Please model this.
Amino acid sequence: EMQLVESGGGLVQPGGSLRLSCVASGFTFSNYAMSWVRQAPGKGLEWVANINRDGDRPSYEDWVKGRFTISRDNAKNILYLQMNSLKIEDSGVYYCLGTVRGRGTQVTVSS
Model:
């Protein structure tokens, strides 16, 4: 069964950092480009970042450029999202997206 399980979310103050992880199982992780998407309260899904199969070509939505870093470890089947300089408007449920979508991890940025 193809599965993606996110972790690493939580409550953080503005300006803080979090590192999200997504563990993949049930498929050949290294064969797929992967993405992080976000659902803010009351809004639909929006793309955050994407990375190619080899992990050497990340791309980002404008609102996270310079603050977030997507990466992957194909040996461990894990996708990461390092989130720095967090803002209140970054809050939401963050999902790992590949062949399937995970259940998400909540990120709340609040003072």
